[in-house]
Amino acid sequence: MPYSEKVLEHYNNPRNVGSFDAKDPSVGTGLVGAPECGDVMKLQIKVNPDTGVIEDAKFKTFGCGSAIASSSLATEWLKGKTVDEAMSIKNTEIVEELALPPVKVHCSVLAEDAIKAAIANYQQKQDTEILADAKAEPVGV
Amino acid sequence: MSAKLPVYMDNNATTRTDPRVVEAMLPYFTEHYGNAASRNHPFGWEAEAAVEEGREQIAALIGASAKEVIFTSGATESNNLAIKGVAAMYKKKGNHIVTQATEHKAVLDTCKRLERDGYQVTYLPVDKFGLVSAEQIREALTDKTVLVSIMAANNEIGTVQPIKAIGRLCTEKGVLFHTDAVQVVGKMPVDVEDMGIDLLSLTAHKLYGPKGIGALYVRKKDPRVRLEPQIDGGGHERGMRSGTLPVPLIVGLGKACEIARLEMPEESARTFRLRERLRNKIMGDLPETYLNGHPEHRLPGNANISFAYVEGEGLMMGIKDVAVSSGSACTSASLEPSYVLRALGVGDELAHSSIRFGIGRFNTEAEVDFVADLVVREVSRLREMSPLYEMVQQGIDIKKIEWAHH
Questions:
Q1: By a Cβ cutoff of 8 Å, what residues of chain B touch chain A?
Q2: Which of A69, B42, B106, B167 could disulfide-pair with B79, CB 3.0 to 4.6 Å?
Q3: d(CA A13, CA A7)
């Protein structure tokens, strides 16, 4: 089964490969998939805490060409979106953009999961930070 | 000299038809096109003579006599005929068959069908190299066993089974022995007498012959093996396989066997050298690569290598100018990785990371060097892109992570 031009293009020139410091409070990390299943995606977003805009995104993927292309495309789409906008990215849009065949739809599902996981991780950090800030405030002094 | 692209290195899947084979076949399409069963005119006689010459050439390669060679459409049919044919013919004697886990689907699925029809099948496990032993078979035999079917060499991992020891055991026990020898015939010496083989499947397209033609060797004496035919019709091939003989294909198979018999010693030494060159270059340059299958008891041209932290299909895309195959699930319709690698106990993640290189007659040293360099470059690139590799570099044990299985 031949790959689409777009999958090949992303595979040969993947956008935004790399990592951010996962401990950075402005970074959200999503790690989805499993080695035994043949796909693992790590997707990270770096959010401007004041605007809620995703300023940068990076990925690393263990998987087939379609999995690499799906995560590469996801990082491209994430940049410049607000966290709320990013939540609405659907796997079907990735399928359409990359012309993925039915057997590769799971790659797009994994990319959507990775986006959601990264956002959830970022939001969790904000919550704990608020909590930590609240705790740090001396109460009743 | 540089390699001409794309490079074909999937010779365990199929081989290029040798031009000498094609040349031998051609007159039988347009000039000598008779039906080998026509006894009344020269067209028929010519065709019959060509068929009998083909039979002789095949028999000579495996140490059989020409009368013991039955033509089929290929190894899948040969395996079906051998196993189902024996099972049906010897039904009154017993209903038990012994085989092993890494057989080709043409054997495994045939056995599964027989199980549904009331037969008992023992699927022996293999060791970490893919080997089964004669001792395991001895222990599995019962007084109901009518057939042992063990492949001569595995198509994915190249492991060569101890066929002679198994054959001797079966002879001693009076149990028929079938071997699917498609990967071995023409690559390594086979002698049905010396090895105690009663039934042997082979196919032309794995030894530089055409697709669509194979043969089943059926022992004629000590013991005389009888088979229940699976295709009824005009009673061709001693009644075991009806159907008009495809004369040009038989000529091709015969020629391919003749070439293999004459050139095997030199050719196998050459493909072995090329394979070792490829393996040493790749595994010498890349850490955490693993050879699947047996290091010594293996087909001369086969190397099956797992590249940790890199997914097989993803890697195949990176080496798209090279035709190879992968044990990764992504290359097949099923979601499971190779059942052969699983039977060896290779973890699923390494099974997903495996590539099979099949070196054959037409591969050159320049191609091997090109492929080795490309693989090293692409694996390095993909590892830099792999979250698993990154974790390992950071000292994280990826086996301890709770992965969300999807």
A1: 309-314, 317-318, 328-330, 333, 335, 337, 347-349, 352, 384-390, 398, 403-406
A2: B106
A3: 10
Question: Which ipTM score applies to this complex?
Answer: 0.89
Interatomic CA distance for residues A107 and B317, integer angstroms = 15
For residue A14, the chain B residue with the least C-alpha distance is B385
How many CB atoms neighbour CB B116 within 10 A? 7
Identity of the amino acid at A83? V
Task: For B263-292, write each residue's pLDDT tens digit.
Answer: 999 999 999 999 999 999 999 999 999 999
Q: Which residues of A touch B405 (CB under 8 A)?
A: 34, 36-37
- Residues 6 or more apart whose CB falls under 8 angstroms from that of B122 comprise B96, B97, B98, B99, B140
B166, B148 in Cβ contact below 8 A? yes
Strands of B150-260 (E only): list them: 176-180, 199-203, 214-218
Q: What pLDDT does residue A134 have?
A: 62
pLDDT tens, chain A, 141 aa long: 678 999 999 999 999 999 999 999 999 999 999 998 889 999 999 999 999 999 999 999 999 999 999 999 999 999 999 999 999 999 999 999 999 999 899 999 999 999 999 999 999 998 887 777 666 555 444
Q: Which two tokens mark B118?
A: 């009331």
What is the arrangement of strands in the sheet containing A27-34, beginning at the earlier edge strand? A27-34, A39-48, A53-62
Q: Which residue matches tokens 């198509």?
A: B155
Tell me the one-letter amino acid at A15: R
Query: Catalytic residue at A64?
Result: no
- pTM for this predicted structure: 0.92
Chain B environment of A32 (Cβ under 8 Å): 404, 406
B314: nearest CB among A33, A41, A68: A68
Whether B257 is catalytic is: no
Q: Do A33 and B404 touch (CB under 8 A)?
A: yes
User: Chain A contacts of B347, Cβ < 8 Å?
Assistant: 36
CA distance B292 to chain A (A): 17
Q: Where is A60: in which H helix or E strand?
A: strand A53-62
With b for 16 or more beta-carbon neighbours within 10 A and e for fewer, the A29-52 pattern comes to bbbbbbbbbbbbbbbbbbbeeeee
The answer to whether B176 and B148 are in contact (CB under 8 A) is yes
- Residue B309: phi and psi, rounded to 5, are 75, 5
Report chain B's terminal Cα–Cα distance, integer Å: 47
pLDDT single digits (tens) B360-389: 999 999 999 999 999 999 999 999 999 999
Cis bond leading into B6, ω under 30°? Answer: yes
Give the pLDDT confidence score for residue B402 in this predicted structure: 83
Please answer yes or no on whether A63 and B311 come within 8 Å at the CB atom.
yes
